[in-house]
Amino acid sequence: MNAATPAAARRDALPERYQSYRHVWVFVELERGTVHPVSFELLGEGRKLADALGVELAGVVLGPQSTATADAVAAAFHYGADRVYLGEHPALANYRNEPFTRALAEFVETYQPEILLLGATTLGRDLAGAVATTLKTGLTADCTELAIDGERSMAATRPTFGGSLLCTIHTRGVRPQMATVRPRVMAMPEPDPSRTGSVVRHELRIAETDIITKVLDFVPDVRTDDVNLAYADVVVAGGMGLRAAENFGLVRELAAVLGGDWGCSRPVVQKGWLPAERQIGQTGKTIRPRLYIAAGIKGAIQHRVGVEGADLIVAINTDPAAPIFDFAHLGVVADALEVLPALTDAVRRRLGVPAPTG
Amino acid sequence: MDAVYDQEPDPNEGAARGLNLVVCIKQVPDSAQIRVHPVTNTIMRQGVPTIINPYDLFALEEAMRLRDQYGGEVTVLSMGPPMAEEALRRALGLGADKAVLITDRRFAGADTLATSYALAAALTKLGSERPIDVVFTGKQTIDGDTAQVGPGIARRLGLEQLTYVAAIDMLDRATGEIVVRRRAEGGLQVLSSRLPCLVTVLEGVNEVRRGSIDDMLRAARAEITTWSAADAGVEDLQKCGLRGSPTVVKRVFAPTPREESAEMVAVDHKRPKQIADAVLDLIFAHQPKLEAQLEAATRREVSR
User: For residues B201 and B188, what is the distance between their CA atoms, to the nearest angstrom?
Assistant: First the structure.
């Protein structure tokens, strides 16, 4: 099949106009005055890509002229950016697709990065899809690994087929190469408060009157049942091996004595036993706790990619052939319904926590 | 009642007066039943049933609710192989009014950029008869999980892009204003926007109806409009399918097991208490800092 090779090579070749595209960019997600931590995680990852390519790492900050915006610029440097492209405009005060898409696409067209990374948050996904379409470039969602191959091409690995396999995707013939990464998938780098860099201010000509969509209000979530899975130090989760929704009390109790949070696997949510906000895995929350206890969870790939960042994974499952034992550090072949309450009790005894009364 | 329209009796009453709503749906393999061949690492598709992407059902229901409230019609649109007709027929059975399938071998292998190109062409054609008010999509598909096709369509057609919509609070047909609640980090954004727009619907925000017997009978007999790329008004075939896709999959693989296999805790004939103690010993042996942290937390708790 040699005949196919030159044609494929021609198709893959980067047209002249994109060959000068250089540097790695991270979109710094500033919403309601706060930078989303995923942006710092991406700066850490972007730093590695930039070093591999021998280029600069830049952050893109879009927001109103404010101290929060200035703080985001400083933070981008602390987390590894060499340069920040800054767009300040009153229309960028609250996230809306139109002004942010226009601004980011204009930045890209003006300064021409070869790679652009965004967090796979609701904001990041809303923006990335629109910007990639505007630029007619490739966008790979929810990457779990990013690397550079021999030809300056970004190899973006992500789960595929509902999380049953992984695939590596490249962008051919166009730049920038865009990717989104979910929060907590990449490690949080250590900030260096002494680091600084250069700021490129770009004047945006946006007229508020041209923007149709207006933000009328923001209704904060009522946090009666605070879910802090993504950033918890200890996470306990249950799967179908717990056999019934009511048995999740055992998961909650162990999480409580360990001072952690709790969750479940995807089938549990699909069964309607627990709400989606408790789901751990590729389409749910990605976690990076010090300790993760998976009880009665089989360990499908889509679950694995959501928990692999945990320092210690303990799996409890009756099936010794369950895939979870392929990536757990500690394995217990036993019934989670028996081991969970025994573990809760063991922790209480060890730490001297009195058993609850009443 | 809409005074503006009151004076114009029209043979096509309901449809011509009401909203023109299009829901983009995708036929996907039922992921719960996908198996990977243990040796070749390929997806074993044989015998895997297909379903309408579950997220799309919330979009369909939301569109039908608008139709039921304001009048008009709901068209379901899908790009896929000829067998995707089944998914469209099922959507008709749930209560959609019309169905259009765009199918062409040249659409095969499309990534999200090429998919939004083909769908945008079909939507332009659908809208040429009567302007579309709202294009709906699900929040994402369960096979691709990208959430990129909706924004792609919005951008290509110049529609207002309203993603992750949890509720449509208001729609004023006279002014074209629409107010939605959109899921954002830590809360809901209340947005005012204008038709025509693209809405991607968050999961679980409505209860998807079961089709009536009438709808099911109608669906079984219904003619599903099938368009090739040319029929759909696709102008540039270079932008379709594999050719029009800037992203290429270079490798598909199963993750390798961790190099060191899991340390298994001996369980034979042991009581849960003994197993639990052994597990806890090992946890704290691996994570001594965690034990110190928990002890400190407990002391604080007890001394309070």
Answer: 13
